[in-house]
Specification:
Two copies of one chain form a homodimer. With 227 residues, the first copy, chain A, is an alpha+beta fold. Chain A folds into two domains: 111 residues, Jelly Rolls (Sandwich); 81 residues, Arc Repressor Mutant, subunit A, CATH 1.10.10.10. Helices cover 40% and strands 24% of the residues of chain A. In chain A, the strands form three sheets. In chain A, strands 1-2-9-4-7 form a five-stranded antiparallel beta sheet. In chain A, strand 5 and strand 6 form a beta hairpin. The relative contact order of chain A is 0.13. The interface between A and B is large, with 43 and 43 residues. Chain A binds a DNA duplex (30 and 30 nucleotides) through helix 6.
DNA sequence: CGGAAATTTGACTTCCGTCAATTGCTGTGG
DNA sequence: CCACAGCAATTGACGGAAGTCAAATTTCCG
């Protein structure tokens, strides 16, 4: 479904480069691309982890559900990000394409084999896992102790850092997604954004009122209490 | 300060065993023990990470602070647990002894060197980091989406698994610590425990009313909504 | 263009936090 | 051994930040 297989060597080099493998590597890995339509699942929690993914275009959410439907998004994966990297053999989140999303696939097995032989790959695997851990640790502080305004400010700062184009943040995700990431309701997120708008901390781009926000970084940073 | 250096080989073997190093390893590592008094800091956030620690006796909390004093405890480290393992060179949490606590110390540098030469050590480092990540991921769900009763139930289940002695959970930490771990106030934790007591889900051991709780596991599990 | 979906906004509720008083426990010193 | 100081925990009364429910408005997309 929505498959596009590629053996483009340029892709292979770049993708593996992220994992610390020299582009002239003669290791054989199966590498190809898939495109997922908006809203479709990439993999489910507890499914066997056969692939590791890198976002080439689009955006992905990964989340856990409680039995009654409450959802917690653990991370958004944007262009360039690698996700689906598990140490055990099972995925610990469900992931879905937020918008139409193209990913590169790397077979987990081949990655494991490369890690065995190449300590550089192994080290980068650890480094990536540590980055994820650090993000989760900071997010625990946000979820456990920050107010709604602080959470939304922190979210905008994070997205500004990760996907800004000259002061404009083209958010791919809905208010509900933001809410489930921040441990709030969509109404509370909307109210916080309105408040930030009143305070002239953020603005909205002319016609496309929703998805794009313009930032006044200085004030925003003051609203998110770090450390 | 409260130092006790040891070169006991049995300690060395056990400690390194946790990291996947054969006990007959002829690698040289500096290994010794420290005892920290109740309430004292082991290391601070942003300090250089010189050592990795293993709890030999006692209990440790690791936390982050916001500038106005709000605290989020990310994890409790109990007997046998390894903590202070960072990939970068800085600690990402402050850690303190909850009660009088003895830890084993392993020099970070020597661990890194062993990981270079031994892929088994390297793999176990990754495995431990992944375990921490998994804990943080589950805790994000708790902090973002669970009610106070669900949080306290989940906490008791976790502690039951980690430090129970035949149905009795000898909690080393205060209500405030539990609250800062669960993203609540100590009053809310106390009320939740009282509620669980009324519901005959938990009981308290005779004289020592506070620190020890007795469990009725079945009902408790029903109160914590998993997945 | 029109219906569906997303977002905003308002009114009201609720769960948890805040503040305060009380009780219970621990440890020290007379 | 007991008294008392000091801290931890419980309990109650009240308030507020965020949640719920609902309606209006805007945007999206076929």
């Amino acid at each position: 479904m929505f498959v596009r297989v590629t053996t483009d060597l340029a892709y292979r080099a770049t993708s593996l480069g992220e994992l610390g493998i020299a582009s002239d590597s003669n290791q054989k890995v199966s590498l190809n691309e898939f495109t997922y339509k908006k809203g479709t699942e990439i993999y489910g929690e507890k499914e066997p982890a056969e692939y590791v993914y890198q976002v080439k275009a689009g955006a992905v959410r990964s989340y856990k559900l409680l039995s009654d439907g409450r959802r917690q998004i653990g991370a958004f994966h944007l262009v360039g990000d690698i996700f689906g990297l598990e140490n055990g053999s099972e995925h610990r989140f469900t992931t879905e394409a937020i918008v139409s999303t193209t990913v590169r696939l790397i077979k987990r097995r081949s990655l494991e084999m490369m890690a065995e032989s190449d300590p550089m790959v192994s080290r980068n695997l650890l480094s990536m896992t540590t980055d994820n851990l650090q993000h989760a640790e900071n997010h625990m502080l946000l979820l456990g102790r920050k107010t709604s305004l602080e959470r939304v400010a922190a979210f905008l700062i994070e997205m500004d850092r990760r996907l800004t184009a000259a002061g404009v943040i083209p958010l791919p995700m809905s208010r509900r997604d933001i809410a489930d990431y921040l441990g709030l309701t969509l109404e509370t997120v909307s109210r916080a954004l309105s408040r930030l708008h009143e305070l002239d901390v953020i603005g909205f781009v002319g016609s496309d009122q929703r998805q794009i926000v313009l930032v006044n970084r200085r004030q925003l940073a003051r609203l998110d209490l770090q450390n």
